[in-house]
Write a structure and sequence with these properties.
By secondary structure, the chain is an alpha+beta fold. The protein is built from 28 helices and 26 strands.
């Protein structure tokens, strides 16, 4: 039973207040056909909307409003009893939006003059919608919908669309939809207003039949229809009830009325939106294509970047493996290797506001670590597994006292030492137990030189007393090196020297005790009588065995240009000169025994090394076999530093890693810039999707009103339009990824033609998935504002829209 108690409704525009209903009280029976008559503007449609929960009556706080004094002052009393609508004795005064949604779905069925069917759904789906919102099972929903269509005579039209039906048939569908969820109340607003006379009579007879077991309330301008079909006629004028042909005074104080909450599932929202989108498929396709352009651009950028990075990585795997791990007297540490205080100082970026100058030690701010290379550490490095390292090389500071017989004239051979060494001379390691060499068919092992250098003339060294000359890719050696070897014709000009003039050249290695003479001041000086020393000395004879050049496949190796000799030769010299007079004197002196300059502990070690009295190398080079081997070597070197004080740790430089990081950073930077430019189109797409969704909201306004009348919540309306943008975003993302993948083929052809690199553009599946997610996210963001706007639409105004 439906009861209305002092229902009022007013509409306010600025200072003007229009009263649509003024304290209307009326009760309705559980099953009767009530016709409400009255001129336009009398309030009858407003009353119907309030009964149906599409509009809400004024509550007490609305009436007692001093800004709009249009009611008697007595109504401002605090004890004023505001209006109320009761359904089966249950008050609706405290209903929330969700309660009204459930009320419309559970208890009310609407029959509109303009039908308000959802055009992109079939007849059956239109009738099912109310039950869908109330969560009726699929099988039950379909059977009940068919029963309702059968009752209105449309069982054979279930799969048609509304636009395939006549006006009378569409009104019958609307009636079936109103009946399908078995509501208590049927509300009909001018149900025959758009129909011809014959069809109107058929519809009225059908409504009359429905009223046998339901409450039917019809609003009409036609008194003849009301008189002919209605059981009860109520007349309205200016918001007041003028007359009631068959009033009902019964009241019901208690109620067991329970509302079943409504909800629209995501699948239903997707289906509604998909059907709507399909009716505008070309517009949707163009929208998705435009939205996908940004995805295409970013996907292609990532594809080519990904491919180039793979080629770079492969190149680095093939070439940078040969780059050594370098252990030098000092090393630059990464931030994560610094102490917390050092890191804090390095990362200070803000401008100081202090009025004082801060005095600091630059050495404490830079991330430089001084290594202490000890015999213990050298032994540790020499034990690196031969499974991981191809060789371990050592660079030493030492002066070789060499003399050469140049056509009867004894001349010194000035091989560079100290800091000059890396440019012109280096040491190669022939110590077999440190190095694993590729095995030849005859079972012998190759030397370091044979693995990395081609022989241009002569032969590879066969013993420690044989050295080689290293030339560059164009067989060049600088003139200073050749001058120091005694080729004086090239002191002031460039030229060429035959290989045969170099290969076989012999030099005598003079012992320190023969080469240096102690003077009266206690210091030492090189001998001036080179011929006598050359004749007297029984030192080793050093021979240039061959001329070598780095192989094309080798990217980086230890040897510099000039004369290169073996570590074995160095060990010989070290052993021979360790107890020489000049070395003993230098060990006991705090000044340089040759230059008389004062020495620090560090420079004293350098001076001893120069004279052959220090076995600690200047630098250590460890050559991994592969990137995997490098990781093992790094773990091995890190193990040495475990639990050691900061100053006792030995920090290495991974040259290959630094190169990899540099190229990776460059590629990442380029990719980031290009992606940023391409992302601009995504922002444009976001705005465009927002506009398209807003247009869709305008186009589907009547559908919004129909869904709200069937009990859809505001969030369900939002979900419908979010589902639409979800579909567009997904389609756009998939379309963009598809286009990007197809474009990789011509892109690869162009890159192959220009760079000879194959299969560069490679679309990473993870990137593809992420971009689709980005596309969906952006379209959801773009459509969120129109979707919320749609949810806030007044259902009454939405139903009136054209």
């Amino acid at each position: 039973m439906l009861q209305l108690r002092r229902i009022s409704k007013r509409y306010m525009t600025n200072e003007f207040t229009q009263i649509a209903l003024d304290e209307v009280s009326v009760n309705f029976r559980e099953n009767e056909f009530v016709a409400i008559l009255g001129p336009s503007g009398s309030g009858k449609t407003t009353l119907l909307n309030i009964i149906g929960g599409l509009d809400h009556y004024d509550t007490g706080d609305m009436l007692i409003d001093p800004k709009h004094i249009s009611y008697p002052v007595s109504r401002y009393l605090a004890g004023y009893d505001a209006g109320d609508l009761l359904i089966n004795g249950k008050s609706t005064r405290d209903f929330k939006d969700r309660d009204w949604d459930a009320y419309r779905n559970n208890s009310v069925g609407f029959i509109f003059q303009s039908y308000n069917l959802i055009g992109h759904l079939s007849v059956l789906e239109n009738v099912e919608m109310g039950m869908t919102l109330s969560g009726v099972a699929k099988a039950t929903k379909k059977s009940e919908a068919i029963k309702a269509l059968e009752r209105v005579g449309l069982k054979d039209h279930v799969h048609k669309k509304p636009n395939q039906l006549s006006g009378g048939q569409m009104q019958r569908v609307a009636i079936a939809r109103a009946l399908a969820n078995d509501p208590d109340i049927i509300l009909a607003d001018e149900p025959t207003g758009a129909l011809d006379t014959v069809t109107s009579e058929q519809i009225m007879a059908l409504i009359k039949d429905i009223a046998k077991d339901k409450l039917v309330i019809m609003v009409t301008h036609n008194p003849d229809l009301a008189t002919t079909y209605a059981d009860r006629i109520i007349n309205f004028k200016d918001g007041h009830l003028l007359s009631d042909s068959h009033p009902f005074d019964g009241e019901k104080e208690t109620s067991d009325y329970v509302l079943k909450k409504t909800a629209m599932g995501l699948f239903t929202a997707l289906k509604l939106s998909a059907r709507n989108i399909w009716t505008k498929k070309w517009r949707t396709a163009l929208t998705a294509f435009a939205s996908s352009i940004g995805i295409v651009g970013i996907a292609l950028i990532l594809s080519t970047s990904n491919g180039f990075q793979k080629h770079i990585n492969q190149f680095q795997t093939d070439s940078l493996t040969e780059f050594p791990i370098i252990i030098s007297p000092q090393a630059t540490r990464n931030k994560n290797e610094l102490t917390p205080s050092e890191r804090e100082k390095l990362e200070k970026k803000s401008l100081s506001k202090s009025k004082e100058i801060e005095v600091y030690d630059p050495a404490k701010l830079v991330s430089v670590h001084r290594n202490k290379l000890t015999p213990k550490y050298i032994d540790y490095v020499e034990k690196i597994s031969t499974k991981d390292a191809t060789s371990v090389g050592f660079t030493h500071i030492i002066s070789l006292n060499l003399l050469r017989d140049d056509k009867g004239k004894i001349v010194p051979v000035k091989l560079p030492t100290g800091e000059e060494m890396p440019a012109n001379i280096a040491i190669y390691d022939t110590d077999v137990h440190l190095t694993t060499y590729p095995v030849q068919p005859d079972g012998e092992k190759e030397s370091y030189l044979e693995i990395n250098y081609d022989i241009l003339a002569g032969s590879y060294p066969k013993n420690a007393n044989e050295v080689v000359m290293v030339v560059d890719d164009q067989n060049r050696v600088d003139m200073t090196t050749m001058k120091n070897l005694g080729f004086t014709d090239f002191a002031d000009k460039e030229g060429q020297i035959k290989f045969s003039d170099i290969v076989g050249m012999e030099m005598k290695l003079i012992r320190n005790n023969d080469y240096y003479t102690e003077v009266s001041t206690g210091h030492f000086a090189p001998t001036q009588d080179l011929a006598a020393v050359y004749k007297k000395s029984s030192g080793e004879t050093i021979k240039i065995a061959g001329i070598i050049r780095k192989k094309k496949t080798i990217q980086f190796r230890l040897l510099g240009l000039g004369i290169a000799y073996s570590d074995e030769l160095f060990e010989k010299i070290l052993k021979a000169e360790g107890d020489s007079k000049i070395v003993t004197a230098q060990k006991n002196a705090n000044t340089n025994v040759l230059t008389k300059e004062p020495l620090t502990p560090e420079t004293k070690i350098t001076a001893l090394s120069y004279l052959g009295g220090n076995a600690i190398p200047l630098m250590i080079y460890v050559y991994p076999k592969s990137f995997e081997s490098k990781e093992n070597i790094i773990k091995y070197l890190d193990k040495y530093n475990k639990n050691k004080k900061e100053e006792d740790k030995v920090i290495y430089t991974d040259l290959g890693k630094e190169m990899t990081r540099l190229t990776g950073d460059i590629m990442s930077g380029i990719t980031l810039v290009l992606v940023a430019f391409a992302a601009i189109s995504l922002v444009v797409s976001l705005i465009m999707v927002g506009i398209i969704t807003y247009i869709s909201v305008l186009e589907r306004t009547k559908e919004i009103g129909a869904l709200r009348a069937l009990g859809a919540r505001k969030k369900d309306i939002t979900r419908v339009f979010n589902a639409e943008t979800l579909i567009i975003g997904s389609f756009s993302g998939i379309l963009g990824i598809t286009f990007a993948y197809l474009l990789t083929f011509p892109v690869n052809m162009i890159i192959k033609k220009k760079t000879d690199l194959s299969n560069v553009a490679q679309l990473n599946p993870l990137h593809a998935i992420i971009l689709i997610i980005v596309s969906v996210t952006l379209t959801l963001l773009g459509g969120s504002i129109p979707a919320k706007y749609a949810a806030k639409k007044n259902p009454v105004e939405a139903l009136r829209s054209e």
